[in-house]
Design goal:
Mean pLDDT: 89
CATH superfamily of the largest domain: Glycosyl hydrolase domain, family 43
Number of helices: 3
Bound molecules: 2-acetamido-2-deoxy-beta-D-glucopyranose
CATH class of the largest domain: Mainly Beta
Structural class: mainly beta
Number of domains: 2
Length: about 550
């Protein structure tokens, strides 16, 4: 099976060596020690149904035996930051979509959500940045939805009354809750015509017993560098405690941006003094989201730094995420991040105690890898795409899904599935393929076609296939502004995929329906060498 082969090819990026993808999905060894590798150039995360993980400014917590990743969902609502999506995982690789934490009129939406567990009340407490009047909070008996929004707000120091509470992190350290937060000053006297428009600085407070407010004492996080314009533009804080030091990770002002300096503050006491480090000049083309400890099963946890990561635009909200283990020196300082594009990092940890979630993409017969260097390509105005693959098994071809993102298109996206006899036939004039099904997706009405890369499914297929059948997926969406899809480099998988079965991407220039070239023998349909788009196919 293609998926099996690809998973093995990815062993370096994957869980335990050589374990096929679908087996990881179904029976990852609960609580087992696993090695996961993260790579700077593999930035997009996908859930087990094959959709892009849509959680900007995310946080990862290990709660009740499971990793949860959650953040602002931009795919449906745009950058309004109102909705919070949540994903769960056993291994930090396979993420199951758990839904929106709280939405609609009763919603407890807001930016940079954080969830912590309160031992005393046995409640999970969610805080979000949502307005001037303190932090919105909501509680739940489980780390999952539904959280019940409180009518009161978590209050911060009254000395910030004229300022806007902004990004924050909350954490329990040695039985006490803490909040590190930044406050925005829109009346910044030294504001420049161009920059900075505002200033903001960070504070740390203790939480009250039930984690629904702070002790109203904001202790300034001013660094040993003298409360300069870096301390005065610090945001997106998260906090952790290690080896006698309180740490606050942060970045400089940079909402939805292509990179900002990555900061790490540390102090022996929350009253300071704070020592500041710059861990990266641009946080590897991203903005720090947080730091979370993983249980290594032997003494000290590994602290994992994660940033948003913008893979070269064109839309910042398509942000991926990068993960790197922090390495500490004896004086408590951390080594700088490694932003080399190909750098990869092994993180060994104890898997969660719940079974790894499965999903449609995990049990697909054929498709592109769960983990690859996916790059957004927006060219449906210029090309019709023909993604092809060879079926790995016999059965009924039930569904085909491709990851597509919309912008502001008016023209529909049309995805058709067909069977063809050979590549030479497919590109030849007058050739007629066998239609298997299709779907026309209207951008204003389809609930699955979002501005993020959801898997768009053609589900009315009933074709009986045998192993080795050639299947094609055509994708058209001609408009003034193009739809976007994801491509990866198939050469990276060439060793394990024979040339005859490798998926291939063919393209046809818009309006090109005749022979081309000096000798008049060039087909208007030709291969985009070494590339393939992200898709999967279910054969039952
Ligand atoms: C944790 O708290 C206990 C008692 O509350 C205290 O004795 C201990 O020193 C604290 N540990 C750290 C690392 O702060
Ligand atoms: C903003 O800058 C002023 C002047 O440098 C400083 O006093 C203040 O603490 C800074 N932070 C905020 C949030 O106002
Ligand atoms: C984004 O950041 C990368 C890495 O710092 C840089 O090479 C690239 O030019 C930046 N792009 C934009 C649009 O700022
Ligand atoms: C699948 O549905 C499309 C409409 O979305 C229709 O045009 C097509 O004929 C259907 N194909 C099959 C095989 O049912």
């Amino acid at each position: 099976m293609l998926f099996r082969v690809l998973a093995v090819a990815l062993a370096g990026l994957q869980l335990a060596l050589g374990v096929p993808l679908e087996q990881n999905a179904i029976k990852a060894e609960v609580g087992a020690k696993v090695d996961v590798a993260f790579s700077n150039h593999v930035r997009y995360l996908f859930d087990t149904d094959g959709n892009q993980v849509d959680a900007y400014g995310s946080k990862v917590n290990f709660l009740d035996g499971t990793y949860y990743l959650y953040g602002n969902a931009y795919g449906g609502s745009g950058m309004g930051q109102s909705e919070i999506s949540q994903y769960s995982s056993n291994d930090l690789v396979h993420w199951k979509y758990e839904g929106l934490i709280c939405t609609g009129s009763a919603g407890c939406g807001g930016g940079r959500p954080h969830i912590i567990f309160n031992e005393k009340t046995k409640k999970y407490v969610l805080w979000t940045d949502n307005g001037f009047d303190g932090y919105q909070y909501a509680t739940s008996d489980s780390p999952k939805t539904p959280f019940t929004k409180a009518s009161a707000r978590a209050k911060i120091d009254p000395k910030h009354d004229a300022l806007k509470p902004a990004d924050f992190g909350i954490e329990t350290i040695n039985g006490t809750g803490y909040a590190a937060y930044s406050v925005l000053n829109f009346n910044y006297k030294q504001a420049g015509s161009i920059w900075p428009p505002i200033n903001q600085s960070m504070y740390i407070s203790k939480l009250n017993d039930d984690y629904t407010s702070t002790d109203l004492n904001g202790r300034l996080i001013a660094s040993d560098k003298g409360f300069d314009l870096i301390d005065n533009e610090a945001e997106s804080p998260d906090l952790f405690f290690r080896n006698g030091w309180f740490y606050v990770s942060a970045s400089n002002t940079c909402g939805n941006c292509n990179g900002s300096i990555g900061l790490l503050y540390r102090a022996k006491s929350i009253d300071g003094p704070w020592i500041r480090q710059i861990l990266s000049g641009d946080s590897c083309a991203g903005q720090v989201e947080g730091v979370f400890p993983v249980n290594t099963g032997s003494g000290e946890p590994t602290y994992v730094w994660h940033s948003t990561a913008v893979p070269g635009g064109p839309r910042v909200m398509w942000s991926g995420h990068i993960f790197q283990p922090l390495e500490f020196r004896a004086d408590g300082s951390a080594k700088e991040l490694d932003c080399a594009p190909k750098a990869s990092f092994k993180i060994s940890h104890q898997a969660g105690t719940k079974s790894v979630p499965t999903g449609k993409a995990m049990s697909a017969a054929d498709g592109s890898p769960h983990i690859a260097d996916y790059t957004p390509v927006c060219d449906s105005d210029l090309f019709t795409l023909y993604q092809t693959f060879t079926t790995s098994k016999a059965g009924t071809l039930k569904e085909v899904s491709v990851n597509v993102a919309k912008g502001r298109q008016l023209m529909p996206l049309v995805i058709s599935v067909f069977r063809f006899s050979s590549y030479s036939d497919l590109v030849a004039p007058n050739y007629i393929y066998e239609k298997l099904g299709s779907r026309m997706v209207l951008p204003s009405f389809a609930t699955d076609l979002l501005t993020t890369f959801n898997a768009i499914t053609v589900s009315n297929l009933t074709a009986t296939v045998k192993a080795g059948d050639h299947i094609g997926i055509s994708i058209t969406g001609s408009d003034f502004s193009p739809y976007c899809h994801l491509e990866y480099d198939t050469k990276a998988f060439a060793k394990t995929l024979g040339a005859s079965t490798a998926p291939k991407l063919l393209v046809q220039g818009a309006g090109q329906n005749s022979w081309r070239g000096d000798n008049g023998k060039g087909s208007p349909v030709y291969e985009r060498e070494g590339k393939s788009i992200k898709f999967f196919a279910r054969i039952d």
